[in-house]
Amino acid sequence: MTIVIDGETLSIEDIRAVSLGQTVALTDDEAVLSRVRRSRDVIDRKLELGEQVYGVTTLFGAMADQYVGPEQLADVQRVALWTHKSTTGPRLPAADVRAAMLLRANSLIKGASGIRLEIIERFVTFLNAGALPHVYQRGSIGASGDLVPLSYIAGAVVGLDPSFLVDFGDETVDSHTALSRLGLEPIALKPKEGLALNNGTGACTGVAANALSRAIELSALALEIHALYAQAMVATDQSFADFIHQMKPHPGQIWTAQQMRRLLDGSSLVQSEKSGDRSHRAGGLIQDRYGIRCLPQYFGPIIDALATATRQLTTEANCANDNPLINPDTGEILHTGNFLAQYTGVAMDSVRFHIGMLAKHLDSQIALLMTPEFSNGLSASLVANTEGGLNVGFKSLGVNGNQMMPLLGFYGQSVVDRYPTHAEQYNQNINSQAMNAANLTRDALDVFEHYLAVALMIGIQAVELRAKLVADTYDAREVLGEGSSALYLAARKAAGGPPSADRPLQWNDLDAFTQPMVEGLLGEMTREGALMSAIHRTVSALSEYAGA
User: Fold this and answer.
1) Closest by alpha carbon to 453, among 532, 546, 374?
2) 3-200 CATH, one of 3.10.180.10, 3.30.70.980, 1.10.275.10, 2.60.40.790
3) How does pLDDT run across 460-484, given as a tens digit for each residue?
4) Pairwise CA distance, residues 256 & 259, whole Å
5) How far is CA 146 from CA 78, 150, 221, 312, 446, in A?
6) Which uninterrupted H or E stretch holds 168?
7) Given CB 3.0 to 4.6 Å as the disulfide criterion, which of 164, 266, 420, 521 pairs with 453?
C-alpha cells in the first residue's frame, strides 16, 4: 500500500515501511495543497511590501543582524545549503536516508514553510525511483534542525551543484545526472526555500523512527526468549497470574504477564501452581528467583518507555519544524524553536537505556541457566555430552554475551545533556544532540541483535537438554508451550537445522564452530526473516501496545 504524505498521519510503522522501499504519494487533499501555495504567497507578499524576514532578507543564526538586498535573495538560499556541505565520515544507511526524505516532505506539506509544491513533489519522485542522496551521520547537533544532513538531501533534490551525489540503482551519479534520469531539471531556489529544506528535525527523527521500530521488534524477541528460559528453568506460572498484576495495575506490567501466560500455555515444563503442582520445589526454593518472578514488573516499564517514545516520535514526524513558520490563514511569519529536536533526543536516550536493561535482565537469567547450582538440574555451561570428558559447552558463548551486555549499558548513557553551550556563536546555546542520540541507538541495536542471537542459542540448548531430562527427547517441541514452539523451531533451523530427538543443538564441542550458528540466527532477525515471522504475534501485540 502506498503511504500518503499529508503532514498529519504518518506512523512509526509507515516510516519503517518507506525506509525499506514502500512507495509514497502526496495527498490530493486540496485543503492541504492550498496551504502550501498560500504559505508561499505570504513570503512573496512580504517581499513586495519590503518587510524584513529572517533567513530571507537576513543571514542566519548569530549573523541574522546582517541584511541583504533584493539582488542577493536567491544567493542567500544557495548559501543556506551550500555552506552545510561540510562533513564526511560514515554514510547514513539507505533506510535512514529514505526516512529522512519522507519526514522532510511530510513537514513541508503542512503548509507552514513557504516552499513551492513542485519541490516537495521531488522528494516523492526520488523516493519512488530509489534515488538516494549521499548523506552522512555526522554534522548535526539537532538545533536549528539537522542542517548538514538535510542540506545534502536538498542539494541533490534541487540540483544545487553536481558535487551532490546520488545512488541511483547500482551507480553513484552526480545530482544533475540523477535529475536528468528522473526527467527533471535543476531548480533555482526562491526566497525562504533553502532554509525550508534544511531547517528541521527530519533526519534525526527518521533515524530514530527506524531505531524505535527495530527496538520494538527486538524487545518482543527478548520477551519470547524469556519464555524459553522460564521453561528451561521449570518455572512456576504463578508469577504471571492475573490477580497479582491487577493488584499492581501498571499497564505494561499487566501486558507482559498476559503475553507470558500465552507463551507458556500448554507447556509441560512449567509448573502449574494453580493446579497444585509444586513437585519441583522439593528440596529447593518454594518460589522462582527474581529474574522470573519479577519479569512483568521489570519488563513493564521498558515497554511503557517504548510507548512514550512512540508517542513522542510520531508527533515529531508529523510537525512543522523549520524557522520561521508561516501562518497562511493570517499572513503572520513567526520566529520559532520547533527545530530543536529535544523530543527525538530524549526518546532515543530512553530507548538505549532500556535496551541495556533488557540485556542485563537476560544476562542474569543466562547466568542461572549456565550454573548447575541454580539451573534445577541442567549441566554446567549446558554441556550435552557430559561423559565425553573434554566438553565445556557454551562457556565461551556466555562470555561473549558478557562482553556485549556491559557495552549496551554503556550505550545507554544519556547524550542529550552533553551539549556545547557555545555552538554557533552562542546562538544555538542549547542543542538537542538528537542525531548523536539516534545514531547511537542504531549502533546499540546492532549490538543488541548480536546479543539476542547469543541469548537465543543458549535458550535452544537449554530447552533441549530439559526436554531430554523430562521426556527423553531432545526435540523440545514435545514439551514447550504452543506459544513458544514457533520461535524454537525457527531458531533451531537457523542455528543448526531442524530439531532432532537424538541430538541437541550442540553435542560435542568439536562437532562444529559456534560462530556459524550465531550468524545463522542473525541472518533471520530481519523484518522478513524466519525469527521475526515466528514471533509476529508478539511483535504485533507490542507494536499495538506502543502505538507504533
Assistant:
1) 532
2) 1.10.275.10
3) 999 999 999 999 999 999 999 999 9
4) 5
5) 17, 6, 32, 18, 23
6) strand 165-168
7) 521
Amino acid at 482: E
In 10 A of CB 347, how many CB atoms?
30
Q: Is 247 exposed, middle or buried (0-12, 13-18, 19+ CB in 10 A)?
A: exposed
Residue 325 has φ and ψ, to the nearest 5°, of -100, 150
SS3 of residue 247 by DSSP: coil
Residue 426 falls in the annotated catalytic set? no
The pTM assigned to this predicted structure is: 0.96
Angle at 439 between CA 438 and CA 442, to 5 degrees: 90
C-alpha cell at 511: 562437532
> Residue 67: how many CB atoms within 10 A of its CB?
10
Instruction: Place 540 in a pLDDT band, splitting at 50, 70 and 90.
Output: very high
* Predicted confidence band of residue 282 (pLDDT cuts 50, 70, 90): low
Taking alpha carbons only, the member of 322, 340, 335 closest to residue 428 is 340
pLDDT of residue 279: 61
The CATH-assigned architecture of domain 209-273+283-546 is Up-down Bundle (1.20)
**Of the candidates 128, 101, 299, 119, the residue with the CA atom closest to the CA atom of residue 209:** 101
Determine the straight-line distance between the first and last CA of the chain, rounded to whole angstroms: 17
The CA distance from 113 to 154, in Å, is: 14
The single residue of 54, 136, 343, 411 carrying the catalytic annotation is 54
Of the candidates 145, 144, 3, which has an alpha carbon nearest to the alpha carbon of residue 63? 144
Q: Where are the domains of the chain?
A: 3-200, 209-273+283-546
Q: If we measure between CA atoms, which residue out of 321, 362, 276 comes closest to residue 109?
A: 321
Q: What 3-state DSSP class applies to 131?
A: strand
Annotate 419-456 with DSSP letters as a single string: --TTTTTTTT-S---HHHHHHHHHHHHHHHHHHHHHHH
CB 542 within 8 A of CB 220: yes
Q: Is 114 helix (H, G, I), strand (E, B) or coil?
A: coil
Percent of the chain residues past pLDDT 90, beyond the cut: 87
- Supply the pLDDT for residue 281: 55
